[in-house]
Amino acid sequence: MSNATLPETPRPPSPKAARRTGRLFALTGAVVGVIYGYDTGSISGALVFLSRDFHLTEAEKGLVNSVLVFGSIVGALIGGKLADALGRKAAMLIVAGSYAAFVALSACAPNVVVLDVVRLLLGVAIGISIVAAPLYIAESTPARIRGASVAAYQVATVAGIVLTYFVNWGLSGGGHWRWMLGLSAIPAALVMIPLFQLPDTPRWYVLKGRTQRAVEVMATTDPEADAQAEVAAVSAALTEESGGSASSLLRTPYARATLFVIGLGFFCQITGINAVTYYSPQIFEEMGFTGNGQNFLLPSFVELASLAATVLALLIIDRLGRRVVLLSGIGTMVTMLAVLTVVFAMGELHGAATWVGFGAILLFTAAFNFGFGSLIWVYASEAFPAQLRSTGASVMLTADLVANLLIAQFFPSLMAWAGAAWTFAGLGALAFCALLFASAMAPETKGRQLEEIRGYWQNGGRWPEQAPAPTPTGPAPEAVL
Question: Cis before residue 12, ω within 30 degrees of 0?
Fold first, then answer.
């Protein structure tokens, strides 16, 4: 695409107006993140009561969760194409409208078959949002606040999970599972109002050849930048990113990087974090806690600790390094799963043992969000060159969601068949494998330029040695007699 016909930069708005627009972009994306987190976690409380109303077996309980994850896989696979074809803004409107419609329908489901169908469709919307929302935020906010804005989306997702547990606790007294599922329809509908008012992203306008509109939006959102130069840079980046294919991921020199992101994505979920998110009331009941007050309120404190761990990781990841954060998080997960195995192996729990189990669940969940949860997308974005970056991230997301599907479907049946002790022992073994895998495969990329990281994979998973200083080519100095 030629940049010679770029229009003149329009007169920029005041810095105050631009900051307001930028914050509106970030806030809108964050609200979608909260809704996504809420819809992911709301089933944990609702499942206790709808299982009784619909007389669900353990396999049927798993299906209520797994259909959502299966839909998410479908949505994630089509999310990128949808965002490219219709626009980031249109994809976000589809997500918000789908959230509002499907959570309302799930709250009105007359039987489990209808509930499963609606949750499948809700999962598709969630999968699209996983792709579209971070993309919309990253491409709409100025470079100086882009990292914080995308990080805010991650924090907002965890905050949504925290919120769902407090809502579940508040509604547990009357068993109001329909309200638990349906409340997020209100903010989902309301967030469509600012979305209609906002433009699409400059990057998408360039993608569609609408460079004049791209310059206008760039000038509106970041008046301190040279809009013409920024749009020209976007156009050049799009040219560089063209041509990446899935088959390229399997060829030298990026086959090792592909193995790394697939393994990291799979281990991220197969180690059991969403077993806690989806089934925490049942886990706490198995642990010896009684009454809805404890079994619904305690998960809220677990997720508050996770939120704090996520924020802490974002603050220190560029100081301590990626490997330190990732390996310490996974190592803590292994330790806490070992503690849970011992606790559940004690048989009937009471007294101090129940609180030891609670502490282990809290630290396990916080450690996940500190390590895996904070780093998985960082590594996905750093492992590949520009032309393969989105494809690589999609591959990692697919591996992540497939493992999530396995946990969602089989965890309750495994708990009923093998018992809690053996179930958590199995998760601990998988977490230990994840620790070995990350120790062997994860590079330390702190402070490295993307070009340097590319060289790491091209060099077979080793940092290239610095080239020696060049030897002077002039005549040798005369010997001093």
Answer: no
Q: Could you report the per-residue pLDDT of 331-381, keeping only the tens digit for each?
A: 999 999 999 999 988 877 667 888 898 899 999 999 998 888 877 767 776
pTM reported for the whole predicted model:
0.75
Q: How far is CA 304 from the centre of its chain?
A: 17
227 in Cβ contact with 110 (< 8 Å): no
User: Could you give the CA distance from residue 7 to residue 211 in angstroms, rounded to a whole number?
Assistant: 7
Contact 325, 374 (CB under 8 A): yes
Q: How many residues does the chain have?
A: 481
Residue range 23-64, pLDDT digits in tens: 677 678 778 888 888 888 788 788 888 888 899 888 888 888
What distance in Å separates the CA atoms of residue 128 and residue 339, rounded to the nearest whole number? 37
Contact 296, 169 (CB under 8 A): yes
User: What's the one-letter identity of residue 138?
Assistant: A
